[in-house]
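It would be a great kindness if you could assist me with a short task in structural biology. The full record is reproduced below for your convenience:
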Amino acid sequence: MLHDIDPTDVQLLRSQGMNDEDIEHSMAVAGLALELAHRVNVPLDMELVGRGALFHDLGKAATHAIEHGLIGAKMGAKLGLPPEVCAVMEKHIRGGLTKAEAIEFGLPVKDYDLHRLEERIIIYADRLVDIITEGKVPLRDARDAEERFEEILKTYPKYGKNAVTMARYFGYHREIQGLIAAAGNASLPV
């Protein structure tokens, strides 16, 4: 569903120094997030889903370190991006940090919780795209990553990170897949 992504936003990523690989990743996350958002079949801010997903890694134009979320949010604010999009950038690290995790990673202590379904869809799509595109997990197809999500996170520490992060991702997976199942859109074509 890349038709929902504004090409000028892609150019904005490029103008900020994002490399082609990170832009491809961001476009894939936006495409999958928009597809998931359509499949849940509940009223959502589709512009937030598309733009939040596309810009979530803007900070990687400056660094690939864990603070890229915070840096991206600051960059986004300077560019005049909506606060909701900047919030996605800031909070997407490990799917939303606890206070203890923020301290551990040397990030400001604040609310990193993903309060909106749109944010949780973006973060879920980000994790799925990593699994689908990195080639570390043998998959039948892209949907296989959704079906085996919890097993994959338990088996491949790179994706699950730790128990706290994994539990957050499991929650997002269960919520989103539950909404998809309730909508009867589990096999909607991509």
